[in-house]
């Protein structure tokens, strides 16, 4: 196993992955009632702000998923470029076990997978928005070779996972403190173009890959951004009224790295806007990205 400290990283990737903050993610959906039922009533997100056409879901005081609503929103299909899933990272394995137990007892269908670096479940809401909820394995269990981390998609051992909660009183009561956005996975029409943006220009490192997919990160994480063209290769970008991701925020707490990042993107990306503590840009899918630092 390769020592993670020896991974070749630069620019934004100089940041320790645990200090790079993703989120909130901005999403478009059709029906606030359906979204409340799924994200608050079933999954247990807290509602941090609610207006006629807007709901912010989060944990504690931290917003994670900000939904805008419109009656003319078009449901997302698997062949639409855009969001593949937004991934919610739980603090530990027992949290995932409690959630899986609740979903099973509630007869809620979900997919699941063991990715070697993590264990995950997947759900879709009524607008076709994909949600992954996962927990990471310990970092010293990740296998690195020449800057590439081993990942796979294997069956999740549900029985072994549920052994984490032998106490019958251990029930899911909503997302615990420490829950955060772990990564964002996009499906794209042109993998090369999106890779050029997120790696060549934005500065993330490619840390894993499969046919038709690349996984990128900062600071040795298994991935902060996933890109695939499995169902969307050469597809047109969808109507702007299509449900799904519209943008997201990134916080770089280290002001020195933030300043270095500003210089990098100013040279490499056209149409960016910036001030002392914020940078705004659009990616190859026209999602807005807002990068902040902590002043």
Structural notes for this entry:
Helices cover 18% and strands 35% of the residues. By secondary structure, it is an alpha+beta fold. A hairpin with a 5-residue loop joins strand 7 and strand 8. The radius of gyration is 19 Å and the shape is globular.
How do the helices and strands line up, and which of them pair or pack?
Layout: E1 21-29, H1 32-42, E2 46-51, E3 54-59, E4 62-69, E5 82-89, H2 93-105, E6 111-114, E7 118-124, E8 130-136, E9 144-145, E10 148-149, H3 158-162, E11 180-187, H4 191-201, E12 205-210, E13 213-217, E14 225-228, E15 244-251, H5 255-268, E16 273-275, E17 278-282, E18 288-292
Parallel strand pairs: 1-4, 5-8, 11-14, 15-18
Antiparallel strand pairs: 1-15, 2-3, 3-4, 5-11, 6-7, 7-8, 9-10, 12-13, 13-14, 16-17, 17-18
The largest sheet has its strands arranged as 2-3-4-1-15-18-17-16
Element pattern in H and E: EHEEEEHEEEEEHEHEEEEHEEE
What's the story with the biggest beta sheet?
A: 8 strands, mixed
| Helix-residue proportion | 10-25%
Kindly name the structural category: alpha+beta
Give the end-to-end Cα distance, rounded to a whole number of Å. Answer: 38 Å
Number of separate domains: 1
Question: Based on CA inertia axes, which overall geometry fits?
Answer: globular
Radius of gyration computed on alpha carbons: 19 Å
The name of the CATH topology is 2,3-Dihydroxybiphenyl 1,2-Dioxygenase, domain 1
The residue-averaged pLDDT reads 92
CATH architectural category: Roll
């Amino acid at each position: 196993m390769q020592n993670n400290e020896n991974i070749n990283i630069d620019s934004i990737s100089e940041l320790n992955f645990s200090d790079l903050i993703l989120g909130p993610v901005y999403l478009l959906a059709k029906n606030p009632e359906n979204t409340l039922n799924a994200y608050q009533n079933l999954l247990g997100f807290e509602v941090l702000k609610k207006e006629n056409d807007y709901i912010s879901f989060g944990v504690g005081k931290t917003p994670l998923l900000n939904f805008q609503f419109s009656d003319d929103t078009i449901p997302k299909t698997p062949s639409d470029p855009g969001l593949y899933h937004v991934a919610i990272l739980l603090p530990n394995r027992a949290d995932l076990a409690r959630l899986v137990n609740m979903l099973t007892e509630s007869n809620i269908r979900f997919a699941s997978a063991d990715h070697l670096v993590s264990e995950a479940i997947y759900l879709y809401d009524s607008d076709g928005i994909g949600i992954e909820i996962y927990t990471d394995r310990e970092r010293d269990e990740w296998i690195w070779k020449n800057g590439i981390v081993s990942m796979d998609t294997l069956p999740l051992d549900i029985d072994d996972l549920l052994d984490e909660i032998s106490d019958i009183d251990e029930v899911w009561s909503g997302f615990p403190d420490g829950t955060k956005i772990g990564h964002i996975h996009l499906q794209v029409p042109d993998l090369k173009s999106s890779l050029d943006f997120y790696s060549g220009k934005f500065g993330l490192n490619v840390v894993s890959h499969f046919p038709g997919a690349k996984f990128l990160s900062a600071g040795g994480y298994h991935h902060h951004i996933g890109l695939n063209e499995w169902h969307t290769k050469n597809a047109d970008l969808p109507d702007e009224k299509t449900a799904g991701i519209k943008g997201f925020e990134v916080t770089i707490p280290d002001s020195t790295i933030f300043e270095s990042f500003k210089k990098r993107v100013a040279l490499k990306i056209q149409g960016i806007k910036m001030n002392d503590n914020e940078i705004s840009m659009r990616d190859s899918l026209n999602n807005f990205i807002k990068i902040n630092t902590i002043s």
